[in-house]
Amino acid sequence: MALAHLSLAVHILLLISLPSHALYQPLPEFDLSGFQQVVVTGQYSGLSFATDTNQFHQADHGAILSLNTNTTFDILSTINGNITSACILPTTNGSFDLYIAGNFSMTGSASTMNIAKYQYESNTTTSLDQGLNGPVNTLLCDTTTNAVYVGGHFTAPINVMNNSAQLAEFGGNVAIWQNNTWSAVPWKGVNGPVNAIVRTQYGSIVFGGQFDSTTDGTFDYIPTSQPVSLTLPAVISGGNSADTVGYNNPSSIVCPNGTQTPWLLQDNQSGYWQATFPHPVTPSLFRLINTNYQGRGTQNFSILALGTNQHFNLSYIDPTTSQMRFCSVNCTLPSTGTSSHDFQVVTPILASGVQISVNSWYGAGGGLSGVAIFQSEIIVHADNDINVSNCTSTTAYAQNYGTSSVTGNWTTSLAQGSYQWVLTNSFSTANFTNSSGAIDYKPNLPENGNYSVYVFTPGCVGNSDCSRRTKAQYITHVSPSLSVNATVDQRNATDGYTLIYRGWIPATSDLFQPHVSMTLAENATQPSGKTANLVAGYVQFVKEISNQELNSILEYQIDQWLQNNSTAAWRPLKNDGLPRNSIVTTLDASTLDLIIGGNFNTSNFTNIVQYSYSTSKMIPFSSAGLNGPVNTMLINGSHLYIGGNFSRPTNASQLALNNLAVYDLAAGTWNAMENGVNGPVTSFAKYTSPNSTSNVLVVSGPFTSINALNVSSGTALYDITQGAFVSTQQPFLSGTVISTYSVANNTILIGNIRAAESYQVNALSVIGNQYQFNPIPLFPTDVSYHTNAGMYWTNPSTGNSTMIIGGQFQLPNNIQNIAMLANGSWTGFPMTNWQGQVTTLTVAENNLVIAGDFTAITDGQNLTSLAVWNLINHTHLPVQDLQNDDGSHPIVNIVRKKPDGSGVIVGGKFSHAGSLPCSSICLLDINNLQWSNIGGNITGEIMDLDFVSNQLLIAGDLVVNGVQAYLALVNNDLTSTPLGYNNRTSLPGPSISVFYDSTNGKAFIAGRNASNSYISQWSGDDRTSLLTTDLGTNSHISQIFMVPSTQKSDVLSKGGLIMVTGQLDINGYGDTSAALFDGNQFHPYLTTAALNGSTGSIRSMFFGSCCPDIGEKNYLPVPIVILISIAIALGLVFFVVLGALLIMYLKRRNEVNTSPKGAPEAYIGKPPRRPQSLLAMLMPAAGAALMTERSSMSEHQTNGRPDSEISQHRAFSTGNRLGGEVVEMGSGSAVATGGAGHHLRSRRSLSERLTPDPILPPEPVYFPMPSRDSAASEVPNHRSSFAAAVQIAARNNAENLPPSEERPHLYFAKFEFKAREHGELGFNAGDRIIVVDANDDVWWMGYKDNGFGEPKQGVFPSNYVEKAPAAVNSNNPYRNSLQST
């Protein structure tokens, strides 16, 4: 009960520590202490106790987890993609906000594009506006500005309704989240991905990645600077327009205002809408509105550039997923709504016009309700009609146009050659200096920046006015206090583009409008003729890149920018020595210098370098750096930990690093992190266990091996203090950990964590009590491993206990699939060329039977699914192979030792054993290694079996006497009975595991049909009843057995719980690997995860001792017991003394009357009688007085059945194809115990309660040491049948010698004797007793049949037996003897 109380206490602690949003999962009371040890086999690398519904086990991608003080992981949030970075900002209420970023679209159930905020106090996740339109690589939570700097490979924050406005502000790959809104950096962005952002000790912010310039002047990022005029002089036309009047005018949709009439195509016909420009244009964005008229509309379209006949490559935001999409000849326009949809030009094309082709449609035909075209160039034409046309009434368009205003008389004409519309002011040379002609160009500048201002002047030759041209003056008004003059000679023969200003110009605002004024130049030369001309084309503003000399590093002096808005605030590092095309992956600025890591190479340094701010120079690391890319860094004190894809320092070939290194910044020396890992390292994170002060570095990456030995899930834990990898007593993590943070007593972990469990174990562990695991040192060298079965065996020559396991694994020293653990080290068997796996084990007569689904070779002999190995001599024992008639591979699913120890029952899928027809089940004589048939009328595949008295209960997919069955009973006469076949719904499919519970008098069966798993019960007739199908479709049960519990139910009326193992999907909880079933519902107990992060499974459990009482124990209250004991003691003292005196008197009187010649052995050679002997002689009499009370208590424990009856109900096995074997006495007192296949009894027979427990290895041990609680022991030297021993003893009765071990005698029990003390042998009247020691007058030593043909040893009172006549033989009737099968 102590462990039961511990179970309750642990659950209370768990309940206290769990978050409020978790639903606690209580377990019923149960007690595993009677098993001594419970060893768990399976396919898993991590294991946890199930605690609550919020417990984390597996995720497809990213996750935010909380590691609690009880070593369990709680889910805080899950992400449907990859997390690449995380950081925290404190909040005003003393809590914090956790920002996560990467490549994802959902966080929990919330839509969050690539970045999100998790609020710890409220346990909620929110999107940052609509997110970002591309992956994020890095975050910097800057507490100085209370802002989050974001770097990655994106263009801008998402704004589905106005994406073009975002593209005009953001230049790509950099953005800032501050005050709950997005803002751009002053230089808009950079032209390549950003991988790292840090704030230096000097206040600057450094961006690293792969870029060479800022993006504050490129075509891509100002796509809507200016609309293209689609009214006259532009020409609009359509192809296959509808015949319906009012719906066939393509010009009606060029200035959409929400009330225009749509343009439609003819029914079920393709067509096009076309615009021809008055001058060439480089479109940057198309804005389209679908018709949504009577179910009609355009579905797929393409846009052709006239003049070049090239299709525009376009990008757009999918309104359904908010993801960036690309298209060219088959773009999709959504059918619903009347909102506009922007399609940005990816590759610019100069076009004289555009054609929008409608390729497919919704409803009866295609059409459009609005078309707008934008250009990135900011051009202001002298002819204002070209600038704004008749769309100025549409507010959305008027605000983006530049305008021009004229003074004087100007005429419009089409310039020859360039075909540009221009204005000309003609005036008399007589009044040349007083010309009144002037034009003011007013651009719409969307942002501050460096601009180049160009003037277009058409050539004079084509217009035949060269003699009339002169000079013009252009004044660029940069600010209210700054104007710049430029003179342009207009007598250019061909079209000319003249730069009139380059420099900083602020954006257009209500406070100031930048503009350019054109007049006659003061130094203009007067033409020789009577008329002079001023010609005005257009003025173009070109945004220039502010910095084109970047080598993947940009430093931002934020304070300098905030003070004076100077472009000098962002620049390369001073004296930047990085080579062009460098890739910067990681930065560290925690010291006064900046450490740069990535992929770059110079003659002085490679892949890692230190930038000194004090000297403005790059300082190489020792040996010039590393010979491969650096991906991550972390400083701890004076040591820099480095991970990447390298093998050694660049100039130090003798030091092997294997992707991990430690650099001593003070000493300038390289050191290895043990033997490293076998693949790239991508991230580091510091981690402190909630229950430990150890400083651990979490190492993550796509590697599969640590230290060139231990397999890994891509995450390794490195103890910084110890300088070594940690393999035990740490959580299991599969995937990549990006960041960790300590909160109160918990640890928050963020990353692409596929699985997380409390304990890191490799397919083998021991449950120390209900809530504690002890690891077993199993370190497979292959990534695909699992254990299936196991057992204990004690070597009779050394007394050492050995654990034996089987499965599919590889261990160091060429150990494969079968291994033995003794004294802390593993040894194997000389078996090679393995294919397949071991699934079941047993030991009989110190011979190990290895079986499963495999082929192997030993001693030159081919092995097929079964092998026998003598554990004493370490030799292979040849056995005839199992075969199938059709030549298919035979499979063995279960091996069980016969109760009398003389043979092993083998079940599976086969038709012959050697030449012997033996379908599905055979008996192997373990002494002569011969096969015999024990189930001739059964075919199919046997998965498991158990013993019910002298019958066999068989589970599988069977045919019995021509009838399909999933359960059958093999009788003592070898006839078989199919069970449950009259009611097929009671067993929905083939059975997998079976065991018999004698406490409740039922057998329980687990199996699976095509869609589900089930558990059923059988109560002794030919019917079975279904208990549950309440498991998910992915459930697979591998084993069931009973565990002690006082809890009762309708199914388990006398107590106990059913342990169910496998891969279980429990409704209301999820995936588990072990659960307790009370006959009505499942209670999750254990969860596991495989190495790759998938759901693990428990194949079987085996035990250190078998088997505890299952049901409830009824005890009187302690005070009453004490009072009764005192009363009995006082009464017995009187009767004992009186009885002793009376017996002594009668005994001595009898000795006086004995003739010396008739019975000399009665007194010759006797020692003086001891006081203990007197009391011992009186014990049977005294015991009789106490027997009434003891029998009363025994009835509660055994349901009123005598021990002899209990002995006949042996069982019953966990019944699993993946199992081992129960405690067994071998020759020389060898002991084997085992498990999942090992006969786990719900109420042990007397013989098994007397079986010694195994002796475990000396220190160090990896599992708890069992105690010895047996009352008697098995016969060490009489392993032949008891019947044979009876015949030998009977023959010895004729000899006139006292009985001895060498010459035993046969006696019969005259009376029933109930064993009460350690070492006593209980029996019933009529039982045959083989006496081996009669030296004492009162207590003799002897053996009896334990009910299964095996001898049982103990002492008993000599006056309870009488000698059998010499003529007696083994055919005489006796009790508790099982007939040979």
From TrEMBL:
<dbReference type="InterPro" id="IPR024982">
    <property type="entry name" value="Rax2-like_C"/>
</dbReference>
<dbReference type="GO" id="GO:1902929">
    <property type="term" value="C:plasma membrane of growing cell tip"/>
</dbReference>
<dbReference type="Pfam" id="PF00018">
    <property type="entry name" value="SH3_1"/>
</dbReference>
<feature type="domain" description="SH3">
    <location>
        <begin position="1302"/>
        <end position="1366"/>
    </location>
</feature>
<feature type="transmembrane region" description="Helical">
    <location>
        <begin position="1120"/>
        <end position="1146"/>
    </location>
</feature>
<keyword id="KW-0812">Transmembrane</keyword>
<dbReference type="InterPro" id="IPR048266">
    <property type="entry name" value="Rax2-like_second"/>
</dbReference>
<dbReference type="Pfam" id="PF20843">
    <property type="entry name" value="Rax2_3"/>
</dbReference>
<keyword id="KW-0732">Signal</keyword>
<dbReference type="Pfam" id="PF12768">
    <property type="entry name" value="Rax2"/>
</dbReference>
<feature type="region of interest" description="Disordered">
    <location>
        <begin position="1188"/>
        <end position="1209"/>
    </location>
</feature>
<protein>
    <recommendedName>
        <fullName>SH3 domain-containing protein</fullName>
    </recommendedName>
</protein>
<dbReference type="InterPro" id="IPR036028">
    <property type="entry name" value="SH3-like_dom_sf"/>
</dbReference>
<feature type="compositionally biased region" description="Polar residues">
    <location>
        <begin position="1189"/>
        <end position="1201"/>
    </location>
</feature>
<dbReference type="InterPro" id="IPR048265">
    <property type="entry name" value="Rax2-like_third"/>
</dbReference>
<dbReference type="InterPro" id="IPR001452">
    <property type="entry name" value="SH3_domain"/>
</dbReference>
<keyword id="KW-0472">Membrane</keyword>
<dbReference type="InterPro" id="IPR011043">
    <property type="entry name" value="Gal_Oxase/kelch_b-propeller"/>
</dbReference>
<dbReference type="Pfam" id="PF20842">
    <property type="entry name" value="Rax2_2"/>
</dbReference>
<feature type="signal peptide">
    <location>
        <begin position="1"/>
        <end position="22"/>
    </location>
</feature>
<keyword id="KW-0728">SH3 domain</keyword>
<feature type="region of interest" description="Disordered">
    <location>
        <begin position="1230"/>
        <end position="1255"/>
    </location>
</feature>
<keyword id="KW-1133">Transmembrane helix</keyword>
